[in-house]
Amino acid sequence: MSTYAQKKGVGAVIWDYLTTVDHKKIAILYLIAGGFFFLLGGLEAMFIRIQLAIPNNNFVSAGLYNEILTMHGTTMIFLAAMPLLFAFMNAVMPLQIGARDVAFPFLNSLGFWLFFFGGIFLNLSWFLGGAPDAGWTSYASLSLASEGHGIDFYALGLQIAGFGTLIGGINFLVTIINMRAPGMTYMRMPLFTWSTFVASALILFAFPPLTIGVFFLTFDRMFGANFFDHTMGGNTIIWEHLFWIFGHPEVYILILPSFGIFSEIFATFSRKRLFGYSSMVFATVLIGFLGFMVWAHHMFTTGLGPIANAIFAVATMAIAVPTGIKIFNWIFTMWGGSIKFTTPMLYAVAFIPSFVMGGVTGVMLGAAAADYQYHDTYFVVAHFHYVIVGGVVFALLAGTHFYWPKMFGTMLNELLGKITFWLFLIGFHLTFFIQHFLGLIGMPRRIFTFLPGQGLETGNLISTIGAFLMAVATIVLLVNIVITSVKNVKVGNDPWGDGRTLEWALPSPPPFYNFKQLPLVRGLDPYWIEKMNGNKEMTPAEPIGDIHMPNNSFIPFMISLGLFIAAFGVMYRVDHAWGLPVLIAGLAITFGSMMVRSIKDDHGYHIHKEDLLEDEDKGVKA
Amino acid sequence: MKRLAKWRLLPLFAVMALLAGCGEPFLSALQPAGEVAQLQFDLMLLSTAIMVGVIVIVTVLFIIAITRFRRKSENEIPKQVEGSHKLEIIWTAIPILLVFVLAIPTVAATFKLADVSPMDEKNEDGKTDALVVNVRANLYWWEFEYPNEEIVTSQDLIVPTDEKVYFNLIASDVKHSFWIPSVGGKMDTNTENINRFWLNFDDAAADEAGRIFYGKCAELCGPSHALMDFKVKALPRAEFDQWVTDMKAVTEPVQAETAEAQAGQEVFNNSCIGCHAVTPANTTPEAARMGPNLTDFGNRTLVAGILENNEENIKKWLKDPEAIKPGNKMTGKYDLSDEEIDAVTEYLMGLKVQE
């Protein structure tokens, strides 16, 4: 089975990726698709900042602006940040726990294709009569009043993509519970694996409320139900609750894996084990738990009354404690260490002050009585961009540089990486710091323009200039990726030289079966332990034997395609007679594909011991 | 604030210097012009001071860490430290204390701002002694009904200074949010239930702001969300009472005086009166008040909430409202010639209950 090194035609490569169930290839798919949506969301952000650069601007019209702001938020959260994190989870987590793949490789592929088709469906709205325009929160009274099919695209697109995320989350949970290598106890798991575990648990509990909310919205808009129509006995506040019971944990779904990536980077480039590992794990779990107790702080001005507001205010402030523990543990990981400022480490270092600023404004927002002033202003916009860009996007950029060699076998250029970093860092603070003040001096969020003479001109102009710096930084990153891919200089197992966890014990990229022999884990940071003991590679926990592998499958693509087609049917059923047959045809494809999957036995195949030994003789590193 | 230790005051002063005086007095939450905004501003200062303190401590530790522990030689292997119980207890306990310092005034303020009990204390007429305003938010305009005074006005909220004004808030179409930044934080106008809160407009601050505060819609409500502004005229109690009296004096539509205005009134009665009332009585049901009440239109601060109130702008608005407020509900409801628009404009500008 040494197909691994063979050259393949373009068609064969595409077919391979369409049908792959290998977590490393699915990671690359997530990275490409998530990266594409990230650029799209970034482009939308640029339109927003250009429109707001000067008062009374008419770069885009009022209605179009609302579509852009909605798609910016929705795209960045659902189609960029989460899939990009999934890319790293897929690429790294199974390697970190010493597994040959995730627990359900087929579902892994299904999760990706559902997300992909959901995202494409949502974005096709631009070409089919207009995008959703009620904000990424899509509050019920406005989303029901919105004309055209924009909101329908939102509801159906998120439903499909949401299934993908839910499936992905369950898959990661099962993988981490069941597939750890011998000796890899829970309290020896790297922090990135731990945060993947907790984030996946959050997905498991947070996505069902979104699914229900979006179903209600779909039925209200497309099948004449009245869940949110108060004149018919419905209630719009229910949507706010459902959305935020999902929506608040969602930000922890994004930030916890980001914390995980940074924890790995801090330990690696300080050459020091993570300070207070147990309290880091504890803090991660606690943040995940508290994340479900605070959703109503998004609704302080909804009129829930002082008792609810006070309880949710105090609960919100409590989250500062475990987050603070993490910040100090990171600083003390560096303390006494041997810090090397690589590009990933620069992001990690810059993340601390940036994220702390976002964190403290979060506590300020938690003070309910004062939040009445902050709520729905640019202060909130500044806050969540500080946590999501200063936390999550920094982590994604850091992770891209850090894990690039493990995913592709090449190193991104460090000089270009550092240029990207500085441009992005400066642009980021320039864009968002001033927005705190814009909010406080009276600028509501989600406004398509502002009138002159209200003291808002300077701040908005500065903010727009900052956004351009971030855009340039992103372009430099793209150039870096192209140059690196063209040069194609391959690197070895541990290109950073300071790898601590199992993934760095494997070749870059690892062979498709990951571990020829499952490794024996002898403590936290197992690869570091082996290196310190003078070993070049992990001690195996088993003799070389046959490895059972799953077959590739085109069925996940078909299942997702069916839902994609059905979604058009649901939506156009209201206007056109052909809607219903399309709906039925789409569902037939989906359920037919599921049937094929159920009936057809697919036992996978074995890589034989002899082939593995032969690979070794030929010099294929494994 | 006085009880805080001296060293705490240092970041506080720094923060105050940074925050105070930002923005315009008629719009900025940082220039509080009433009890509510002041309370919120104090809470902001307290929380900002604590948070700046946290940032300073983190930054100092952080800078020491990244400068002192740079890698000097490629071969150095630092000691692998597991952690420190003492340190970890310290940085768990101190944040908990800080959270308490912030949580207690927060909870107290939250309850204080929610105290609307005078709205329930009815006198023998079934009215409240406190001034109550019913705010009804509509797609891109605001209606203000004074249930005790039994009058309605729109777009310009008239309030007396230096007393608590209580608000009932509701939206008639989609959710909006009622916000007067310099006077106090916002509250949402939901579609299905009435929200209640109070504000207090400070007379001296109102004077400084030119008696006009800016009000905004803070919840995305459609294309013209950004343009759904209103104005607040904060007057001393006596002037407010005079305004109420003058409003109440208008019991039936005032007859226009000039010939052109009379022609305009005719056009208005044929084309506009279906939605816009020119008498202030609140006897018409809410559902029938489909457009802003125009009784005191001539005294409006702005046309459509955003344009200076002059003849030219009124004509511009009447000719093509869609160009000014996209998605508004007036577009296409009438068909007037240029002459008719001129006449209606003349009539509207004469609608004043006070000179």
Automatic annotation (TrEMBL), chain A:
Principal subcellular localization: membrane
Pfam families in alphabetical order: COX1 (PF00115)
A GO MF term: metal ion binding
Entry keyword set: Cell membrane, Copper, Electron transport, Heme, Iron, Membrane, Metal-binding, Respiratory chain, Translocase, Transmembrane, Transmembrane helix, Transport
The protein's Enzyme Commission number: 7.1.1.9
Required cofactor names: heme; Cu(2+)
Annotated pathway: Energy metabolism; oxidative phosphorylation
Top enzyme class: translocase
GO CC annotation terms, alphabetical: plasma membrane
Signal peptide: none
Segments crossing the lipid bilayer: 27-48, 68-89, 110-129, 153-179, 191-217, 237-262, 274-295, 307-332, 344-365, 377-398, 419-441, 461-483, 554-572, 578-596
Cross-referenced PROSITE patterns: COX1, COX1_CUB
Bilayer topology: Multi-pass membrane protein
UniProt keyword annotation of Isomerase present: no
Catalytic activity reported: 4 Fe(II)-[cytochrome c] + O2 + 8 H(+)(in) = 4 Fe(III)-[cytochrome c] + 2 H2O + 4 H(+)(out)
Domain Cytochrome oxidase subunit I profile: start-end pairs: 9-522
NCBIfam families given in the database record: CtaD_CoxA
Protein function: Cytochrome c oxidase is the component of the respiratory chain that catalyzes the reduction of oxygen to water. Subunits 1-3 form the functional core of the enzyme complex. CO I is the catalytic subunit of the enzyme. Electrons originating in cytochrome c are transferred via the copper A center of subunit 2 and heme A of subunit 1 to the bimetallic center formed by heme A3 and copper B. Cytochrome c oxidase is the component of the respiratory chain that catalyzes the reduction of oxygen to water. Subunits 1-3 form the functional core of the enzyme complex. Co I is the catalytic subunit of the enzyme. Electrons originating in cytochrome c are transferred via the copper A center of subunit 2 and heme a of subunit 1 to the bimetallic center formed by heme a3 and copper B. This cytochrome c oxidase shows proton pump activity across the membrane in addition to the electron transfer.
Protein name: Cytochrome c oxidase subunit 1
Lineage of source species: Bacteria, Bacillati, Bacillota, Bacilli, Bacillales
From TrEMBL, chain B:
Keyword check for Transport: yes
Cofactor note: Binds a copper A center.
Domain Cytochrome oxidase subunit II copper A binding as annotated: residue spans: 128-246
Subcellular location as annotated: Cell membrane
PROSITE patterns per record: COX2, COX2_CUA, COX2_TM, CYTC, PROKAR_LIPOPROTEIN
Cofactor(s) named in the record: heme c; Cu cation
UniProt similarity note: Belongs to the cytochrome c oxidase subunit 2 family.
Protein name: Cytochrome c oxidase subunit 2
